Amino acid sequence: FGFETDTGDRTGKRKTGSDLSDAELKKILRTVNWNKLLSGFCGEIRQVPPMHSAKKVGGKRLYSLARQGKEIERRAVPVTISALEILETAGDTTMKFRIVCSAGTYIRTLAEDIGRKAGTGAHLQELRRTRSGRFSLDDALDLAYLEEMACPETRLITMREALADLPEVILPDNRIEKTRQGLPTRISQPVIADGSAVKMIDENGSLAAIGIYENAEKNVWPKVVLI
């Protein structure tokens, strides 16, 4: 807390800052009602993508424009913050947060917005992704550890396992060639939502394709064919 940077994180140049002394800054942070402040960022919110990001506007990456010293107008986009809590305070002006958010959330922007709401300004010092989908750091392996393993391939998972969150259909052998040709397979499962991505599994248990379910005709159309 205390100032923003032109990149939104500690690698950037100081952009704005208050005229507060360290003592005044610490006093403000001690008097903030953090539960109330953070609750205002939970649920669906709208964020303006930072200039230093890979988002494209008019066919150009924002970071490319930022490196040219340009700043353009960006539309706010909806994101969802499911959880936002303080884990610890490191020193008097640095806080560590736990955040559960939707894909596309800019944590640097969230840090800036929290700092503005607190009245002090802020930037992101460090970011660690602890989970993505069903995979967490508990599933991760250090590269050095893998290099030292006698049989690192034993830690590989199948593509079917990697997409465990998706519903699946088992293809009979007589549908494999049709799937390879991009033709749909009619299914009977009524629980799949219209437009959902679906794993298409062959009778050997391998991922044959990823398809899209079309409720009107009860068909799964292959979109990514792997056979």
List keywords for this structure.
227 residues, 7 helices, alpha+beta, single chain, three-stranded antiparallel β-sheet, Archaeosine Trna-guanine Transglycosylase, Chain: A, domain 4, Pseudouridine synthase, 29% strand
Describe the structure.
This protein has helices at residues 22-31, 34-39, 62-67, 107-118, 143-148, 159-162, 173-180; strands spanning 3-5, 14-17, 43-47, 56-57, 60-61, 77-89, 95-101, 131-132, 135-136, 168-170, 185-186, 197-201, 207-214, 219-225. The protein is an alpha+beta fold. The protein has two domains: 3-128, 2-Layer Sandwich (Pseudouridine synthase), CATH 3.30.2350; 159-225, Archaeosine Trna-guanine Transglycosylase, Chain: A, domain 4 (Roll). The strands form five sheets. It has a five-stranded mixed sheet with strand order 10-12-13-14-11. Strands 3-6-7 form a three-stranded antiparallel sheet. The chain has a two-stranded antiparallel ribbon with strand order 1-2. Strand 6 (77-89) and strand 7 (95-101) form a beta hairpin. The protein is elongated.
